[in-house]
């Protein structure tokens, strides 16, 4: 019977650690997916189902009541599947051989703010809420975004420079990002 208690305690520790990871990681992570990686979701669901079934099987072999084993298994499976999302983001980054590259994006004032790539073949990004920071840029402003296409083929971008500039703006300091390109020479207004 003490073996069953040890298993339950171990599962509880794993569960709490995974929940803490899912809460803390988004606050510390400086890279995010450019769009939801929809093809990742079936993999995460399968991971959660396998973990859930394995947990139920282990607990039932240790003579845990069926209802309790099922509930613990489902909770652990959901948690493992959900924790796979930030883990995939980190693995995509860590296994990427090319690293971050800077690309120019046009800022479209929408809700949320949309970054449209100037160069073709890059993903559109709609991550930031429309605020006074973005409003100050006006139409056709440009911003440099650091992107990577990681080992799993998912695009992700580094938010560090942008978040730092937003905080600078919120403190009343002059922002560094968001430049409106000069009009071509032929389009200059006539005196």
UniProtKB/TrEMBL annotation:
The keyword Transmembrane is annotated on this UniProt entry: yes
Q: Quote the protein name from its UniProt record.
A: Uncharacterized protein
Ranges that cross the membrane = 6-28, 40-59, 71-91
Please tell me the species this chain comes from.
Candidatus Muproteobacteria bacterium RBG_16_62_13
Looking at the keywords, is Transmembrane present?
yes
Question: What keywords would UniProt list here?
Answer: Membrane, Transmembrane, Transmembrane helix
């Amino acid at each position: 019977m003490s073996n069953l208690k040890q298993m339950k305690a171990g599962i509880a520790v794993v569960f709490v650690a995974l929940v803490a990871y899912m809460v803390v990681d988004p606050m510390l992570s400086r890279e995010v997916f450019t769009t939801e990686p929809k093809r990742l979701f079936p993999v995460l669901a399968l991971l959660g189902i396998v973990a859930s079934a394995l947990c139920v099987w282990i607990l039932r072999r240790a003579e845990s009541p069926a209802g309790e084993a099922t509930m613990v298994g489902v909770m652990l499976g959901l948690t493992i599947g959900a924790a796979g999302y930030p883990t995939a983001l980190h693995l995509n980054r860590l296994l990427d051989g090319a690293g971050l590259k800077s690309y120019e994006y046009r800022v479209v004032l929408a809700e949320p703010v949309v970054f449209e790539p100037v160069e073709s073949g890059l993903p559109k990004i709609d991550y930031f809420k429309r605020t006074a920071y973005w409003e100050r840029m006006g139409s056709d402003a440009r911003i440099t975004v650091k992107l990577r296409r990681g080992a799993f083929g998912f695009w992700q971008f580094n938010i560090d420079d942008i978040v730092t500039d937003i905080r600078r703006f919120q403190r009343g300091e002059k922002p560094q990002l968001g430049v409106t390109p000069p009009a071509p020479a032929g389009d200059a207004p006539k005196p």
